[in-house]
Amino acid sequence: MDHLPLAAAAAAASAPSPAAGAQHGRVLDAYKKALATAASVAAYAVLARSMARELLPDELRAAARWGAAFVRARLGASEKERHTVVIRRQLDGGYSENQLFEAARAYLATKIDPRALRRLSLARSRCKEADGSSSWTTLLCLEPGDSTTDVFDGVEFRWTSMETGGGDDGKRGGKGGGDRGHRAPRESLELSFDAEHTDTALERYVPFVMATAEQLQRRERVLRIFMNEVRSWHGFNHHHPATFDTIAMEPDLKKSIVDDLDRFLKRKEYYRRIGKAWKRGYLLHGPPGTGKSSLVAAMANYLRFNLYDLDLSEVRVNAALQRLLISMPNKSILVIEDIDCCFDANPREAHKITTAALDQAEDFDFSSSDSDDAVGAPPRARRAGDLQQQKLTLSGLLNFIDGLWSTSGEERVIVFTTNYKERLDPALLRPGRMDMHVYMGYCGWEAFKTLAHNYFLVGDHPLFPEIRQLLAGVEVTPAEVSEMLLRSEDADAALRGLVEFLRERTRRRARQEAAIDDNQVVAEKGNAA
After folding, report:
1. Does residue 65 belong to any structural domain of this protein?
2. What Cα–Cα distance (Å) separates residue 62 from each residue in 57, 71, 108, 112, 266?
3. Is the domain of 141 the same as that of 157?
4. Co-location of 289 and 215 in the same domain
5. How far apart are CA 205 and CA 182, in angstroms?
6. Angle of helix 478-485 relative to helix 445-456, nearest 10 degrees?
7. Are residues 89 and 143 in the same domain?
8. Which of 431, 347, 442 is nearest to 393 (CA)?
9. Spatial contact of 336 and 424, defined as CB atoms under 8 Å apart
10. Residue 476, CB half-sphere, CA atoms under 13 Å: how many?
11. Last residue of a domain, one of 396, 422, 439
């Protein structure tokens, strides 16, 4: 009986009070109303999104996406400060194009993943050449409001395409009119990054983008070859197929040339720091038919530089030579073939002036006043004695290579070719004048394998061992081997013909050596008598 009051008290304590039950009911009702409201908002959001897709133009939806991204960026600014660089397409109120914008767009075309974005645009970009010609390339571009990311040296950069303005606002689109009631939209690219990486962005990343875009444009452009006629250059499209993959030469020598060209392209600041003109000189020497001209074409295709083939027989005075050379643009290759045939045995001595030289010197009277000391112009040549000093000489050419005129341009390659290096003036062979001497020799085994692969796509053949042995004992040029391989499209027939050619060349060499030995024996007997 004593436990009954305790049980009743416990039951009374565990039962909820009327006030607590009412409060619990209000909380439950509020929760139900919140769920209903959220469901309604979600339904309205889905409906609004569907209506926006149907009714709103693409431009407004792109602006909305950009606005949302902007708000998200601002909300996260408290965590890490961001900087933004705006790269506008046009400068000076629309009067000039921003080269950085075109470079960035060309660079981003290689970074955009078409599968990651729902909307993309295609554009044709015009690449202006140094000689005034143009080439075109198709680019993949971001739509206004869309973004893509790029990582450079571990730093993430975000690119966003922007388009502002446009529409009928009563303002003129630019000087000269057109449609007075329409203003063209202003395009720009925004580059954003963490503030702590500002130096990396401006000092390293932006120059990297420019350099990469420049390389892309060089790869896409149509190469041209120029020839000189008296006082000017005349250009033609250049489609030589030679490349470093197809040229027949020893692999180690080929690699050393490619590595040297790569170093040259990357050393602009290095040349400036050491006080030298940004240029590179190559002397290609060897017997005729060893591929010197093909190597020049391969260098042009590799660098994507235009070729300037200088015929010195068309140049008779130093002033004409200077005018031609300073008119060459940057990123070009100057070629002088058979340099040993261009000057006399004593090229730096005075020679009798010719009538043609007198006429050409008269054409190069650049003075704008009657004074003989006109600043900025070559001295007038009024007397034959003066013209005698201006006659084309090797010294005039060397002055452009590494003299005072060597700084008239940059990023240039100078190539001299000769079949007879021993005939060259010692001034051309002075250390440091031509940076790299390349001997183009007779066809060896590795060069032959390249030719066999070029012509027949074969890497091995039953006749290869005999061909290798024969090549080691005779002197044949790659041009001679190519001629034999061209005689048949069938690899077996062509290689058999080459073997017979090499055997005959071996027999001829043996006969010549035997004749030399006989002559020596006769001479020795005569001396003994």
Report:
1. yes
2. 9, 14, 19, 18, 40
3. yes
4. no
5. 37
6. 30
7. yes
8. 347
9. no
10. 29
11. 439
Q: Domain of 188?
A: 58-167+184-220
Would residue 177 be called left, alpha or beta, if left means φ above 0 and alpha means ψ between -120 and 50 degrees?
left
Extract long-range pairs of 210-215: CB within 8 Å, 24+ residues apart.
210/100, 210/103, 212/107, 212/110, 213/102, 213/103, 213/104, 213/106, 213/107, 214/103, 215/304
Residue 375 within a domain? no
| CA 423 vs CA 76, 150, 281, 287, 341: distances in Å | 73, 55, 19, 13, 9
Structural domain contains residue 108: yes
pLDDT of 239 higher than 70: yes
The answer to whether the beta carbons of residues 284 and 415 sit under 8 Å apart is yes
Q: Residues 294-343: pLDDT tens digits?
A: 999 999 999 999 999 999 888 888 888 888 888 888 889 999 999 988 87
Q: In sequence order, what DSSP letters do the residues of 206-218 get, joined into one string?
A: HHHHHHHHHHHHH
Q: Flag whether 337 is in a domain.
A: yes
Statement to judge: residues 478 and 429 lie in one domain: no
Residue positions counted in the chain: 529
Q: Which residue from 301, 332, 319 is spatially nearest to 361, judged by alpha carbons?
A: 319
Looking at the structure, tell me whether residues 123 and 211 fall in a common domain.
yes
pTM: 0.61
Shared domain check, 209 and 95? yes
Write down the number of H helices and E strands in the chain: 17, 15
CA–CA distances in Å: residue 121 to residues 103, 118, 144: 17, 10, 10
Domains held by the chain: number: 3
| Helix orientation angle between 206-220 and 99-108, rounded to the nearest 10 degrees | 80
The SS3 of residue 272 is helix
